[in-house]
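Record type: monomer structure entry
Structure origin: computed from sequence
Chain ID: A
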Amino acid sequence: MMNKNLLNLRFLTIALIIISLVILILIKIFSIYFSDSIFLQEEGKKRYLKYKDISSVRGTIYDRNNFPLAVSIVNYDLYALRGFDKSNLLKLSEVINISYQDVDDSFQKKTLLKKSLSAEELMIIKQMNLKNYEIESRQSRHYPLGDQISPLIGFYGTDGAQEGIEKSYDRILSGTNGKQKYYMNPHKEVISKPIVVKKVTQGQDIHLTIDSTIQFFAYKYLTEAIKLNKAQAGTAIVLDNASGHVLAMASYPSYNPNDPKRKIQKNRALVGSYELGSVLKPIVLSKALDDKILLIDEEIQTPRRFAVDDKIIVDKENFNKLTAKEVIVYSSQVGATKIALALGYEDLKNNYYNFGFTKPISINFPSASFGYMDVKENISDKELASLGYGYGISISPFQIATAYSVFANKGIKKDFKILKNDIEYSKQIISSESASQIMDTLNLVVQDGTGKLANIKGFSEGGKTGTAHQIKKGKGYLDDSYIASFAGIAPLTDQSLTIYVLIDGPGLNSYSGGSVAAPVFAKIAENSLNYLGYFEDE
């Protein structure tokens, strides 16, 4: 009996163990099913979760009259994805002209159905209850003015913003891309509508002070002169003195930004830096007048040859004596030397600084030139003389153009801007009286001096010629290669334009600023003033 009870106990124990094991297994199964189901579901979703970047549309660059200088053209293409079935294809083909190859049941890979959808077609597709399709956007950048303005605007290509305004204001123009997600089944078929994860921020538009018509004049006449004179390069700048706006900035050689094979050319108005010669003489004289070192009609002894240290300064003719204003009118090197020596190095140097030379410019532009002046504690008289007639200091064309605007603006230097909404800064750097005397002198340069070819029919004008030897690679100057330039103001009223023209390396038959650059000033000025509706009784 005892043995029987013991046996029953053993069976009961074994049974209890088996039941316990079964219960534990069931608990584990239910635990996996209930407790881990969310995790497994999420993992499954992740496996077939897809993300897609949504590109922002780059902002447009406009001129001051809202003419587009750089615009993004957006095209939309329709694609069938894996799982897009024949019934949807037929339904779509009834309302939209699509190009496709017939399929048995559904598409097995991403297939283009139509390029460049119209706005109406986009609307129709969005209203249809379709699955497994995708609309992709393509952007291309277009530049309506082409090579007329490309060294200023730059371009945006496959490698992003390249050069110019496009690069300077890339962050504003670009915006930020968005992102969306959608789910796919194990067969890689889309099973959900796109869900926005990150919203697109479209690029902002920017408005420049550039006037497309005046830009055309500047580029046209600059290019013609460079080709006519067999020159290497050049630039032309037009400033509105009253508003502080840059109206035009042409540079040659240029390039077509719409051509994929384009060869980038620099903006010589902002990036280039040159020793400009005699166009600096009025700036030197303005300081001497301001400091009462001499009077505008005060006579200066000007022999044809004048020794400074071991250097002989030579004029083109023996003037014998000239007034301070006549030194500018006839562009006397000897006269300019004597004015510089009377002024002294410190005053001359500080005056150049005040006019903006060797300082950062007011325009945000890649690799913009500051210019250069060799600042020394001890400077020789011959070095001082060179600075007085425009050698030994390099200046960008934009810097010399803004410097001449000081005379038109009654001694006030403005930080010229190229964005319409930029804040304008200004500072009085010479007296209004000195500025007025220089303006009268510049008028005489055109009437009786070296700038006669800058005369404009129907308007008063003034300016100064510059003819400088090109710098050698290494040291010194080339004897047979020149920089010809003209800085001018027209009309001589409160509403005026400053126009600067530089021709780099004209042929030797005609190479002076008066013969090469002054006529370009006249053409740009006359056409621009007539276009702007300026009238003047001379």
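Annotation 1: The radius of gyration is 37 Å.
Annotation 2: DSSP finds 16 helices and 23 strands in the chain.
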